[in-house]
């Protein structure tokens, strides 16, 4: 078992502490949080060991899970990696792309593994269909949330949209060609609602919308490719796959047949895979343990986390051009 510790014991940090304690792949050593009063309460209530310093926790672990506010990610992660310990770090990987590049290169130099907490990669609906997504040419994603003051220290792009950016980059096997975006600040100092159009070198176009001031929640993505339409509901954990194939000469009475303008007939059929319920956060943490044990590249590597951040920051740069 890998000895694991958590840096940051806020809302998400407490969830990670609970799951690491439950996991059969980790031995939870404890946590460190700069708020000593809160740390004492957590220690008394849950029994997790509170360490007196970040360095003391890092020294006691094989793997450190960084769940601090984004602005402190690099400071914490750099110490973890310099100590030769494996790093799990929540999204976004760091506050700036420069920090992410430095962290990625440092981890490679030190020979340690690093994984970014892009939890939607482990959403059971996405996992059920991601192998079916082949060369999509148009993608549409909507991620809408009700207002929550927690998380407004960063733009809605880094808070919410980055989930869809990462998922899309994982299935589109092409470089980003251009980005056009707009955003509006309604309640926060940074944009609360944003739309981005990402064009790839292979012709694929992705249209992403994210909002944290909506009346209802929504987390959906739709992927369109040759002879197939794939829909993923990340919130309800449901997926739908609609495929087309050449129609048989003698279709049965219940077959759904479409005829295009050229007279070519296609049969529509549904191929919806089973979605197995899971705890996505536990799965991402345990997948990282397996990557460490087997000396493999993690599912969401530091390189991938860096690329997702780079695209997110390009979107935010578009806002600045519009003086938003």
Automatic annotation (TrEMBL):
Where does the record locate the signal sequence feature?
Answer: none
**Which InterPro entries does this entry report, sorted A to Z?**
Gfo/Idh/MocA-like_OxRdtase_N, Gfo/Idh/MocA_Oxidoreductases, GFO_IDH_MocA-like_dom, NAD(P)-bd_dom_sf
Q: Which residues form the GFO/IDH/MocA-like oxidoreductase domain?
A: 151-217
- What name goes with this protein? Gfo/Idh/MocA family oxidoreductase
* Organism encoding this protein: Patiriisocius hiemis
The Gfo/Idh/MocA-like oxidoreductase N-terminal domain sits at 3-117
- Pfam family of the protein (one): GFO_IDH_MocA_C3
Q: Which SUPFAM superfamilies does UniProt cross-reference here?
A: Glyceraldehyde-3-phosphate dehydrogenase-like, C-terminal domain (SSF55347), NAD(P)-binding Rossmann-fold domains (SSF51735)
């Amino acid at each position: 078992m890998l000895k694991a510790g958590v840096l940051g014991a806020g809302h998400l940090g407490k969830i990670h502490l609970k799951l690491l304690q439950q996991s059969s792949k980790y031995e939870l050593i404890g946590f460190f949080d700069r708020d000593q009063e809160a740390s004492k309460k957590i220690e008394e209530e849950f029994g997790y060991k509170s360490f007196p310093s970040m360095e003391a926790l890092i020294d006691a672990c094989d793997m450190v899970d960084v769940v601090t506010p984004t602005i402190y990610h690099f400071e914490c992660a750099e110490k973890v990696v310099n100590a030769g310990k494996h790093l799990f770090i929540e999204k976004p990987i760091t506050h700036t792309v420069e920090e992410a590049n430095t962290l990625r290169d440092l981890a490679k130099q030190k020979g340690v593994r690093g994984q970014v907490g892009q939890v939607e990669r482990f959403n059971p609906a996405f996992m059920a269909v991601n192998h079916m997504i082949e060369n999509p040419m148009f993608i549409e994603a909507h991620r809408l949330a009700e207002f929550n003051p927690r998380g407004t220290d960063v733009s809605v792009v880094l808070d919410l949209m980055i989930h869809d950016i990462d998922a899309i980059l994982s299935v589109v096997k092409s470089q980003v060609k251009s980005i056009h975006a707009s955003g509006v600040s309604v309640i926060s100092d940074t944009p609360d609602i944003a739309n981005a159009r990402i064009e790839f070198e292979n012709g694929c176009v992705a249209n992403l919308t994210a909002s944290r001031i909506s009346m209802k929640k929504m987390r959906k993505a739709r992927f369109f490719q040759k002879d197939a339409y794939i829909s993923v509901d990340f919130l309800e954990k449901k997926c739908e796959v609609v495929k087309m194939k050449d129609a048989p000469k003698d279709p049965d009475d219940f077959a759904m047949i479409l005829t295009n303008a050229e007279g070519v007939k296609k049969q529509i059929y549904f191929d919806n895979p089973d979605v197995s319920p899971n705890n996505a956060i536990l799965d991402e943490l345990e997948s990282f343990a397996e990557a460490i044990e087997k000396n493999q590249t993690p599912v969401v590597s530091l390189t991938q986390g860096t690329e997702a951040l780079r695209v997110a920051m390009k979107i935010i740069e578009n806002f600045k051009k519009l003086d938003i």
